[in-house]
Design a protein that fits this description.
59 residues, mainly beta, 5-stranded antiparallel β-sheet, 44% strand, globular
Length: 59
Amino acid sequence: MAGQSLYEPGMIVEHPDRPDWGKGQVQSSVAGKVTVNFQNAGKVVIDTAAITLRVVSFG
């Protein structure tokens, strides 16, 4: 699975430690960094080496 990401643009995810951010849509995933546009937090870049996002929908 080298080079592939678990997260693809269009997926709906939640941050496990920040439920107040609401659901977010994955915008991009590059080199272990996922940009997510959350309902209540806006665009946030997540380091997937440190945080595992919860997938809600595959888009």
